[in-house]
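Form 7-S
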Amino acid sequence: MQKKPRISFIKFIFIIYVIIFMFLSLSYILLLMKKSASNSYEIEINGQKYGNTQFVKYNNQISIPVPSGGRYFLENVDVGSFRVLDSQNYSDRSTLIVGLDKNSVYFGNIRIPDLNPNKLKVIGNGYYTDGTNTYFCSDMSERNQNLSSPMEIFQTLIYAFSKTKKPQSYIYPYKKVETDKRLQAVANLSFFASDGDKVYYKGEVLENVDLNTLVPIDGQYTYFADKENVYYHSKLLPIKNSGNLKVVSLNPDDKFLYDEINGYVFIGDYSFDKEKAPYKIIGSNGTHLYSLIFVSDDGIYFYDSENKKQIKLKDNIFVGDIEEISPNVFTDNENIYYFQNYEIWKKYKNRGSFLASRNTEVYSLGKKESWKKLADIGNENIGSLWQKDNEYYYFDNLKNSSSKVDYRSTIYKITDKSTLESLLFYPEYINAEKIDEFILNKNFQDVKGEKLFTATIKFHNVLKIFLGVLLVLGFIFIVFFLYLNKLNKEDEKNIDKMLLEKYRNIKPLSKNYNDKE
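Output:
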């Protein structure tokens, strides 16, 4: 008698999970259908463009593409009076995404309520004013920081089942400048403006900055330094300008600031542990690695770009000075080492695959004595030829591929005499296609040293996240159901108790047989 309710409850839980799964699957399908049915291409081809800007008029609607977000429509816009702020000065490209009608100013598709379109003026470097309020607007789209992940998911689900507007996942970022003074654009410094007292970067104030000595440390306006201070965007970093600062990067997303004098390392405003400094960076010009390696007296580190933190791989095993003798090969006082990278892709059960991890390995080739460089290979230095005793090796500088077809080892032993002669006597005529031919014909033999450590960056599995959301939603629903069930039982008990009390207080209407009148 006790098992039936339990079996029924398990069935109930299963049904709930099935319903949630079907709902999320249907949402995903509807989103794909909406994307495939999108008329963005038709709008771009057949719509009326406003000058050289990104705005397009089509079917009495005005829209603008936002990179990574798709096409968005301007809401409550007066189409008849709409115009663009194309200043023809394309050193300030933000003018290409600023529009106006008789009532409002738009940064992309976002209406700015406190800017007067009839008084709007271009300051330069992305800054605009109507004489009362001042804003900065960038022409490079970014994630919408005001839209939380739960809200984005909620809006996406609503969008899938209705005709509401899609979530504003990406925007052209803008910032109101809190000043009542007149701004001027700073010459030769993109995104900068000054009101005479304060200096602004993308609308944010830089503290204690000397504008006369302020320069970008890299060419992409990520890090800046004046005669004393160092900044990441507008944020003051906790170091002083040593005079020997450089930006090191393997990809556009991970730009490290390196102080060559003190050995400090920053990525954005995140600082590597300064107590472990100085750090030595290895692999900054490498092509067979996904992660730079940072060596201090304390240990060997890398930066986990997914979890946004410094990770220690192991204690420092290197002896003395470290020298890079090739983009992917380096030595210490005793041994020679090289990088090797690879990706791990995993398949879903039904179809498709996802990137599970990127891995950077460091191998040892033993003692560095008797290694001798003979020549650089190719006009673009695609590799180099080396000799060890009576054996010859090719050190590869070409960028490695995640594809097994194009995969390259870092070091090859040359096993074919004619190949060796080509590399020795005609190194400048060897190109990447010829190297691939040598590898394909097995004129090169892979070299494997002793693996010392691996730096691994693990990526999130979208399917696991989806299933996680499914489980969480199901769990929340079940807890809520159990809570309601508990309340219902408590109500029933209270009602039974109340009825019992009332029943006890009722006097009998009939007499006992033995009662006397």
